[in-house]
Q: What sequence folds into this?
């Protein structure tokens, strides 16, 4: 199945199956992640307490680990949930928010990647590079790197990390080490809204419950980017607050045909 048809099928599958997605994320974006998951058609649950995190993961169709508000007390829960996901064959998505800013955060993320087989790792170029290079101090914040990474570099990082990587930026890239796609939808005002990257991670987890990792990653980024375009038109001359609200409406209404017709997805030959 071609990728455009596959992401359309995945959109339909999420809406009809309503998979339960366990999302371990921070307080800054938890509400947005839950709402974008609901808008897509999946069901979010957010249980971080160590005594129950493994049990909830076992009942879920996918697990998202988001490091945005990482705390030492949270690490044990992240490891327990990841361990259960791997044991049960549940898709496991990592959003390494802020990796590279400090040695502690970077080493915590590297430890997770080394210990567990992640289905998808989604982040900006700096975050993914830090994981692949196993180093910190490369950049200063979650929005610092806006340049476009070469497709070959993205492919190499996917091979190095042994997973599908979804790299967001001015032009988004997805690669599983064998196939690489350049995704060119988007709206610059999305950078004015906190949490769009985290929401994209939640979308990736929801899609991973119903399709392959490569398709899930492409579908997640295309959904958010295309929704940004459509929401910007809907919000007319309004600012980021109106765009934020419109995003959920657009994702809720977004159809498989919208993704197939309007998704700007290009296969990259390397």
A:
């Amino acid at each position: 199945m071609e990728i455009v048809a596959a992401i359309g099928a995945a959109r339909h599958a999420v809406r009809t199956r309503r998979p339960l997605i366990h999302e371990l994320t921070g307080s800054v974006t938890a509400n947005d992640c839950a709402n974008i998951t609901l808008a897509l058609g999946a069901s979010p649950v957010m249980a971080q307490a160590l005594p129950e995190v493994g049990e909830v993961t076992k009942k879920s169709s996918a697990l998202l680990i988001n490091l945005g508000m990482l705390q030492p007390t949270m690490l044990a829960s992240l490891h327990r949930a990841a361990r259960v996901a791997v044991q049960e064959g549940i898709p496991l998505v990592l959003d390494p928010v802020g990796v590279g800013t400090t040695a502690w955060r970077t080493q915590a993320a590297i430890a997770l990647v080394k210990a567990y087989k992640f289905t998808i790792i989604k982040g900006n170029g700096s975050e993914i590079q830090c994981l692949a290079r196993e180093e910190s101090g490369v950049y200063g914040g979650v929005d610092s790197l806006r340049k476009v990474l070469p497709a070959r570099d993205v492919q190499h990082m996917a091979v190095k990390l042994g997973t599908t990587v979804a790299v967001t930026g001015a032009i988004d890239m997805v690669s599983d080490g064998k196939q690489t796609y350049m995704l060119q939808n988007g709206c610059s005002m999305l950078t004015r809204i906190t949490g769009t990257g985290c929401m994209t991670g939640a979308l990736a987890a929801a899609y991973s419950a119903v399709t392959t990792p490569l398709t899930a990653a492409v579908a997640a980024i295309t959904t958010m980017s295309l929704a940004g375009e459509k929401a910007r038109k809907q919000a007319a001359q309004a600012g980021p607050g109106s765009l934020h609200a419109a995003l959920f409406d657009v994702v809720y209404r977004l159809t498989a045909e919208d993704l197939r017709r309007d998704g700007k997805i290009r296969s990259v030959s390397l």
Observations:
- Residues 140-146 have pLDDT under 50 and may be disordered.
- The longest strand covers residues 20-24.
